[in-house]
Structures are given as C-alpha cells and as structure tokens.
Amino acid sequence: MKGLLTALVLLVAAGYAGVISDPLQLEMAQAAPEQLIPVLIKPVGRADLDYINSVAAGMNNSERREFVVTVLKDFAEAAQRPLVETLEAMPAGSVSDIQTNWIVSAVGCWATPEVIRRIALRGDVEWVHLKTRPDILIEPVNTREPGRGELDLANAWGVDKINAPDVWNLGYEGQGVIVAVVDTGVNYNHNDLHNNMWHDTDAGFHYGWNFASGNPNPMDTHGHGTHCAGTVAGDGTSGTNTGVAPQATIMALKISMQLSDEQQCWDAYEFATEHGASVVSSSFGWRQSWNPARQTWREALENSLAAGVNHCIAAGNEGGNPGTYGDIRTPGDCPPPWLHPDQTTTGGLSSVITVGATDSNDNIASFSSVGYSTWMFDSPWFDYPDTAPQIGLIDPDISAPGVDILSCSYSNPSGYTEMDGTSMATPHIAGCVALLLSANPNLTCAQVDSLLEMTAVDRGAAGKDNIFGAGRVDIYQAVLAALVPIGEEESGAPAEPAAMVLSGVSPNPAGSHARFSLYIPASGSVTVSILDITGRTVASVHGGELTLGSHSFLWNVPEAMSNGLYFIRAEGPGGQAISRMTLLR
Prior knowledge:
- The chain is 26% helix and 22% strand.
- The chain is of the alpha/beta class and 585 residues long.
- The strands form six sheets. Strands 9-10-6-11-12-13-14 form a seven-stranded parallel beta sheet, with helices on both faces.
C-alpha cells in the first residue's frame, strides 16, 4: 500500500512539478475525489514596489499609506479576478470558502483534487500549496503568579531596564500612536488597558476585530494577548506600570492561534494597515519544519514596508545554533527595513524588526531563537546567501527583556501575571517604536529600525550578531537620537511627483493579458499605446480623460499579436513614460 501511494505521488508530481507543493500532492493522493482540501493559491505577479516608492517619495506617512493601499488593492483585484471567477464557476460542492488578500496577492479556498489539478494548469497561477494550520502561538516558556515584591514596584523591571521612564520625562509616552496587537485578543476591560483601547466609532469598531470568529469582539480568553498588550501600553492604574508606551492606543486583533492559517494573519495585517496602526506587534510564527509560505510572507511584509507600517515580530522560543539557519520562525526570518553596517551580505528589505529575549542581567534567554536566516533558495529574491564569505541574514535584529515579565492578567481586570518568552520581548520593542513615533511622527520604518539598532546596548560579540542582534534596546538613547533633525527633506510640504510614472508589467513575459499602473500628476487627457520594437503603434489601451492619481489597467492582448518585445507608452500631463513588455505565448 505504501509503495502504491508513493507511486501515485510521483505520478502527480511529474505533471505538476513546481506548481503543486509536495505536501499538497501527498494530501491529494490520499483524498477521496469529493474531499475538499484547504489550499493557498498564488497568482502570478507582484505589485511593482519601484513604481509605488517612486510615486510616494514625496508623500507624508498618511498620504503614502492611502496611496499604497489603493495600488495594492487594485493590483490584487486585477491579478485574482480571472482565477476567482473560475473557482466560482466550478461545479457545486467542489469549491468552498473562497478568500482573497491584498497585503499579499493570494487566494485561499477549499477544493477537490480535480479542481486543484485544473487550477494548477492555469498560466496565471504560480503555485498551489496546502494550507498549514499548526499552533502558531509562541507559547510562554513559563507563566506564574507574581511575588509580593514585584507588585510593590512602580514599574515592571523591563520598563525600567530599557529606560522608558526617562523618555516619559521628555513628554513622550506613545500618545497619538496606534499599536495593533495581533494575538489571542485583549481583555479590554482591564483597568490598565481600558482607557488606551482603540475605537472607531464612525465605523462601529470598538477595540479591534475578532478574526477567529468573524465578529467585532476581540476579548482574550487565553491570556497571551492581554499580557503582550500590557507590555505595550499598560498605564499602571491597578498599581504597576507595565507598559513601555503608557499612552499609546491598543488595537486588539484576535486570530486563531491554535488553528490558524496564513490568510487569517494577513486579514489582521490588512485591518491594521487600513485603520491607521503605525506599529504591529506579532508574537507568533511558523517553524520552518511546518512548511510556511515564506514567499508570501515576505511579499506581504515588503508591501507593509511600502505602506510605512512597522512590524515587531518574535524570533521564537526554539533556542538553536547561531551558526546555522532555520531556527528563526517565519515571518521573523524576513529582512529588516534597514541593514546594519555589520550586515555585509545584502539583499532586499521588508518591514520586520525581529526580536530576541534577554533577562534582567542582559544575558540572552536560553530559549530565545537565534540566527541566521537565508533567502538564497527562495524566488524571486535568492538573496542573503550563506556561502563563505557570505554570512546570510543576521537574526534577530535586536533584543529586549523577555524573562520574568510582569504584565496584565486576562482573567483579573486589576491583576498581573508573569511570563517568559520572545513573545514578551516583542511588545517591549513595539512600545519603543510607539515612543519614537510620538517623539518624531515623520520617521520612516528604516529610520526607526536604525535608531533602535544603533543605540542598543551591545551584548555578546562586538556589533550585530546572531544571538543578541544589535544588542539590548535602550529607548532613551534612541529617542534622543530621533529628536536630532534627520535631514532637510523631512521638513516642508510634501511634494507630488512632477512627472508621469508607469509601473512594470505583470506578468512579464505577458501572455493573454498584461497588467500595469499609471500615475499622472494632474488631471487631463491621456493616451496609452503599445509600440513594437520599431516604434510603430500596434494597439491602443486608453485614450481620454484621467484624474490625478494612480490608475490600473488590464489589457487583453489581441490574438493576432506575435511574440516579441513591445513597449507601453503613456502620454499626457507630466510628459510621457515608457515600460518594456515581452509577449510570449
């Protein structure tokens, strides 16, 4: 029987190699014909971040976010529409629970093996994976009731250790900064948190959202999320100040930590981005042995970087060997927004600050996962190689208190509890980011990361290393550095791009269709044409009035057009812009 199953898997693999993942092939080989299997589908193409960053270069943070969200939504809708229409047209009972995301262009559903095989043959599908649904919560190593002496302290020891009270004395306590805690929910009735909870009364949202149950009540019934939220912004009403940024606003985004898939996490990230969170604290992650969709995580967090959202993510509680890769959980293994000078092996960036845990003596916690990470095997990046003299991606990025951490109890609205873990270190860094942004709201993600890393207390090997990262955070020194003017470009009114900007084509090579975006700096008449290699116009995509801003196009390639190199030319307000396109069918 085992030999027959292996033969079936090999037969499927031969026809769908590189498109259907190995775990999904195995699941399909064992499934009944009518069985629905949870899958994640990646449409071909990614949003053009060069286009986004070029257009958004002169925008302030809120303008940038609005623009990026619009472009990402437009791109995802165009990339996913043909696939979603096909799934919706499948025979009754063969597909269910179709779900889409735009922070990363992905489509999820439950589908029969036959539907999966048909989808995998489409030219606009990059791959189909089995959805992994493990326990992604980075569980505390220890949980215990605090001793009397700890409850007599004005501040939790970690808050004092990183010099947060010195920042408060400067007048910066996180005011005006929304921190989304993506976790098990938050007991929003806790005395130390209730006055700091997020509300959007116009939209009818109170406190956040429960993605686990699909309702507006993100109440914590576990304890992990409330503890993390208390480390971000617990204001000490019940006796002890546990929060690094006690006037920051907590947005509670509850996910199913015990049975979650990537899409539920991305839903939370999208909510945070759309509703004004500048910081996201995530104390969860996939072990590498669970086959996470690493490429989609990195795409999501690159898009988050473009939107200007800072992500603080736990490294994990697996300990490990700093000389090998694979111990940092996904998405903590994604690159940071800024590369430390010791990061001699370079590559692309994302919005992730990965956090390790230290104790009260500034020693690394025995459980804290250590680096390095690498993306040398992952398309389309193939970066951060570890082949000597290359060093991979140094991970974690920074460390913070994560042992014997006192914070809010979910079961007692005036009580506290202690926990150990990188989950407890991560909200310390999220609170630090809130303090930086309250001191200087114009900081970019790269500036935030560089300020934290360059002012950290160096521990372990000199410089940034795979155990402590850049060291243990010192938020007072980081804020002092943030108050120094960073450059003339930070002042004055934001400047709109003076010229047209045309994105790259997706997919490229194009087949039956081509997607692209065009930004025009003023309303007016615009023509968009296709030229062959001689400069002759061979097709018209658009002719007429367009308003100022970004516009998405989906051009269906005429069947009569032959393979080869073509150019897309846009002309109108701001001059003209040209992109190259290869047609291959």
